[in-house]
Amino acid sequence: MQEPTFLVLTALTGEPLHGYGILQQVTALSRGTVVLGAGTLYGALDRLAGQGLIAVEREEAVDGRLRRYYRLTDEGAGRLVTEVERLRRNANAAAAGLRRRGLRARLA
Amino acid sequence: MQEPTFLVLTALTGEPLHGYGILQQVTALSRGTVVLGAGTLYGALDRLAGQGLIAVEREEAVDGRLRRYYRLTDEGAGRLVTEVERLRRNANAAAAGLRRRGLRARLA
DNA sequence: GCCCGATAGTACGATTGACGTAATATCTGG
DNA sequence: CCAGATATTACGTCAATCGTACTATCGGGC
Q1: Are A80 and A62 spatial neighbours (Cβ–Cβ below 8 Å)?
Q2: Which H helix or E strand runs over B73?
């Protein structure tokens, strides 16, 4: 799983959000380092919904503009747990190798 | 940066290795969960060398078989530090959201 | 009055990286 | 003598991201 996809799932660990809300949440979570384009976002939403990791909570029409709210499914939350473990394992392996070179990752 | 690429750099934090050695090191580092195909590996090596993140250390011919050894450059090590910080930040953000749902990532 | 930016989503082409497999070639072990 | 490990090259394909343009509404500033 790539970073944009991971951050979309992460954004949905809280309240259900609609696409644009997810966009803003991802930007905030990543401190502005990841700003999703429209293609990436809505492509990821369709894909994740197809995989059952997220689901449409409800749809609202505000001023003729559609708002489609997504929530994280239990399966999506489980998958995210697995991904967190993978990221931590990889980060630790790299950090161990870098320490032997005298380099240290700054604490985030 | 995706996982296979990240693990190739991680494998090279130690001694310089040739392609096949990197293959085995990545498999070991990931506890067998990531087994690179030839296409992925050599594609990544060419790309990373082109970006200056790794460099050819030396070439050996053993029984007419080529062994091309790669080392991590300072630039590559720096990039890896950045990536470790990114992974940790993302993992922490997701873990925080999951905790609010009562889920916890098992310690790796 | 008009343009800009924020809001919200759709559509589509381009690019990148990864995936998968086959070919080549040598050496070792059963 | 064949399978499997060693070691690299060379394809073609696919998935995900990137990037941009388009539609459409609303509010604010010039």
Answers
A1: no
A2: none
Angle at A25 between CA A19 and CA A31, to 5 degrees: 140
Strand D close to A35 by CB, under 7 A: no
d(CA B73, CA B40): 20
Q: How many residues does chain A have?
A: 108
For residue A15, the chain B residues in CB contact (below 8 A) are: none
Q: What percentage of chain B reaches a pLDDT higher than 90?
A: 88
What pLDDT shows up at residue A85? 97
Distance of CA B25 to the CA centre of its chain: 9
Strand order in the sheet with B65-72: B17-18, B65-72, B54-62
A104 backbone dihedrals φ, ψ, rounded to 5°? -135, 135
CB contacts, 8 Å: B101 with chain A: 13, 77
What is the rounded CA–CA span in Å between residue B41 and residue B55?
Answer: 15
- With a 7 Å cutoff on the CB, does A102 touch strand D? no
- Chain B within 8 Å of A17 (Cβ-Cβ)? no
Strands (DSSP E) found in B44-103: 54-62, 65-72
Tokens found for residue B11 = 């494998």
For residue range A15-62, list pLDDT tens digits in order.
999 999 999 999 999 999 999 999 999 999 999 999 999 999 999 988
